[in-house]
Amino acid sequence: MHHIYHTEAIIIYHGNIGEANRLFTIFTRDLGMIKATAQSVRLAKSKLRPSLQDYNLISLDVVQGKGGVWRIVNARKKDTLEFLTTNKKKYSAWIKTLYLLRELYHGEDPHPELFDDLVSEYTHFSQPVFAEDWIELFETIMAFRVVSALGYGEAHETLTPALYGPVDLPLLVSLSKEKKLIISSVNNALREASV
Fold first, then answer.
1. pLDDT tens for residues 140-195?
2. Predicted TM-score (pTM) of this structure
3. DSSP states of 14-49 as a string?
4. Closest Cα partner for 13 from 44, 55, 58?
5. What mean pLDDT do residues 51-76 have?
6. Residue 39 neighbours by CB distance under 10 Å
7. Residue 150 has what DSSP assignment?
8. Which helix (H) or strand (E) holds 12?
C-alpha cells in the first residue's frame, strides 16, 4: 500500500493524456514542484475535475507510484484566492507569477516559505480594497521574490525590504521609486536563468 501525502498546492499547468487523463504540474507546499497524473479527470462525471483547474489553490492528496510517478487521489479547491478571479488585472498578475515559477523551478525540492509567501500575499492582494494602481508594482515585487527565493539574481541592499514581510501600501509606496531597479534585477535573473 502506498503512503498518501497531504499538502496544499497550486495547479500550475496541465496537459492531456489519452482520452480522459491529465498530467499536472503542481507547486506543492511540502513536496516542491511535482508532476502528477489524474485518471479520468476530463470526464464530466469526475469528482476531481472542478478542483483540478489551472491556477487553483487546493488541498491535495497524492501517492508516489512505481518509478516515482505521482498520482492524484484527492483534491479539494480552497476559496482563499476566489477574489482574484473577479478582477482581470489581478488574476493576470497571479497567472504571470505562476508562469515565472514554472519556468524557473527545477526539481522537487520543497520551498514552503515561497509557497506560503505567494498564497499569503496574493490572498491579501485579491481583496477588493487593494487599488488597481498598484497591481503592476505588486506583480514586479512578487516576480522579484520568486527569482530571489529560487537563487537567481544578485542581492541589492536597497531592495531588501521587497523580499520580506507583507506587500502592503506602505511598502509599495516606499518601493515605487525603486521599480526600475526591481525590474532590472528580475530581467538580469531571467537572463541568468536563460528564460
1. 999 999 999 999 988 788 888 888 888 888 889 999 999 999 999 999 999 988 86
2. 0.91
3. EEEETTTEEEEEEEETTTEEEEEEETTTTSTT-SST
4. 55
5. 93
6. 16
7. T
8. strand 4-17
Q: Scan for cell 497524473, then name that residue.
A: 37
> Domain 4-77 classified CATH 3.40.50.150?
no
Distance of alpha carbon 79 from alpha carbon 20, whole angstroms: 26
Q: Domain map of the chain by residue range?
A: 4-77, 82-192
- The sign one gets for the Cα dihedral 187, 192, 193, 195 is positive
Q: Is the pLDDT of residue 35 over 80?
A: yes
> If you search the block for the grid coordinates 522537487, which residue do you land on?
108
Give the whole-number percent of the chain exceeding pLDDT 70: 98
Residue 149 and residue 145: Cα distance in Å, rounded?
6
CA 49 to chain centre: 19
